[in-house]
Amino acid sequence: MHDFPCIVRLSVYDPLLMSQGPGSAWKRTSLLFLGHFINDGYGSFFAPLLPLLIDRLDLSLAMAGVMGTTRILINSFTQPVFGQIVDRMKRPLLVALGPVLTITAMSMIGTVTRSSQLFLVLIIGGIGTALFHPAAAALVGTVRGAKNSGVMMALFSAGGTAGAALAPVLIIPFISTFGTTRTPFLIIPGLAVVLIFALFLRRNLPIKEIAARERMHLRNIPKPLAVLWVIIVLRGMAGVTFSNFLAVIVTEKGGSHLVGGAAISTFLITGALGGLLAGRISDHVGRKAVIFTTILLAAPFLLIFLHGPSWAMLPSLALAGLFLFSSTPVGIVAAQEIMPGKAGLVSGIVMGMAWGVAGMALMPVGWLADRFGLVTVMTWIALLPLVAAILALFYHDAEEGT
User: Is 1 a member of any domain?
Assistant: First the structure.
């Protein structure tokens, strides 16, 4: 087997070289939370509107899966390219440019009349998100070795999850009140928030940046990181597919579009809150214990949502989201601890690449759902966290050794 070198240009912000103290790091991370919130909020309009888009454009579930996968793949696999651009820029302009593209494109989703137009909207929205994430991640105010670094990462991560969670309960009532053709008006408040975010962030940037080159071979990737990556992919497959098809499942079970949007919000907002809690707990009991426990507990609540009584639908989703997504920041920190000094590389592996591979599950899930039924297929998807939990038994924290 040949070894393919992967040359990654890393931007390392050394706390000792910053004029700002810890207060500025927290301010910067809080502002990045806001940027993450607005970017991923607008970027999440697709899933709650999917039932309406299926009816309007006569889409099959397989085509819906292809469209969702297209956006995720563009977002995930172009991040390293944009990360290279970020490293060469004196100012992180992409932190603001990314949300501008995302907001502009996704605000047009209500006006599409052909599947080709929807594809274009999702592609541009995916590029915007891909621009934002590496630029923002390079600016997260973590301090190496500090006890609060996990909390800062969790705070930044929670911003995106919270935005995605609140998007459905905002876009569905908006469309119900004003109609789908008025969604372009959402560009105005979105860009206003980006302007405020960018102006305040500019005052809390690191002063000096150290750029370094790292040459990495596939054979040098530690075994614990490889195991962790597979765990994150399996968990991500469950998270991506349920997030994408939740509104469709709810409507198939007799719920309204508004309830479908509320289901997505419930699923994601508890995940954001769980991430903050899990990040703190993992600092005391270890990353492995939190990853194993949370992923294991997610599966039964996903199954209750699919097959339980209607009154248990939202409560089970809340607990499923809490456990399924709470390990997201824990997994990022765990990966960085496995390969210290290569935060950019490992973050790309466990966030961008893993999420992109997980998103590829949307296509086969949609294809199978057209033939066997969505609930039947999603029942098997709900078992993936159990497989991930079993793999977690073979994972070792950095301090445990390999």
Answer: no
In a domain, 334, yes or no: yes
Return d(Cα 149, Cα 22) in angstroms, integer: 11
Number of domains in the chain: 1
Are 107 and 184 spatial neighbours (Cβ–Cβ below 8 Å)?
A: yes
Q: How far apart are CA 211 and CA 25, in angstroms?
A: 19
Rg (CA), the chain: 20
Q: Is the pLDDT of residue 4 over 50?
A: no
Q: Residues 349, 335: contact at Cβ < 8 Å?
A: yes
Handedness of CA 268, 135, 34, 125 (dihedral sign): negative
Q: What is the pTM of this model?
A: 0.73
Question: Are the C-beta atoms of 329 and 29 separated by less than 8 Å?
Answer: no
Closest CA to 238 of 134, 359, 128: 359
Q: Going along 109-204, which residue ranges are E strands?
A: none
- With residues binned 3-state (H G I as helix, E B as strand, rest as coil), the percentages for the chain, rounded to 5, are 80, 5, 20
Closest listed residue to residue 45, CA positions, set 155, 157, 187: 187
Neighbour tally for 401: CB within 10 Å: 7
Residue-wise pLDDT tens digits, 333-370? 787 778 765 655 566 667 677 777 887 887 788 889 88
The residue range of the domain holding 180 is 6-400
CATH number at residue 319: 1.20.1250.20
Residue 262: count other Cβ atoms within 10 Å of its Cβ. 22
Any idea of the CA torsion for 339, 229, 285, 15, to the nearest 10 degrees? Answer: 40
